[in-house]
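Journal club side-thread
Mid-discussion, someone asked how the predicted structure for our own chain would compare to the paper's figures. Pasting it here so we can look after the session.
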Amino acid sequence: MSLGADCVLRDPVRTEVLLEYLAKYRSKYRNLAVRPDQGAPSYDFAGAQVVPHEHRLARLNKAIHLAPQEIELLRLLHRSIDKVVPYPVLYSEIFSQRFAGDTANSRVLLAKLSSSFRKLGIDLRSYVEVIPKSGYLYSRRARRATRD
């Protein structure tokens, strides 16, 4: 039996190699302006309405403006309801860098986002749980707030 190209076994893709490649690719195109997707639909998150293309968070008659990284964190959490969003994914998607074990940037961003939600009268931390050494977990139902 002769082996053709389609019969050769290949090594599985390693996550850290793929993340490093993506970080290199993003750094190359970092200067290109990223515009919010005008067709991105609004969605509910922890009792507030997120309007991604306007970088706006609204509840009742109040609305506030969010930074692009806050919107991106909300998007990642919303897409992964009841699943942990791992730190390597957070750092790759939000900060365009490889996760090296230091969670300071993500903690600061979560604190900033929590402050934004607090302005609308919502305790975000009762919806978003920090899973030590893993990442963040968003649940639609509020639970008792935990602090790290």
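Post-session note: The longest strand covers residues 48-51.
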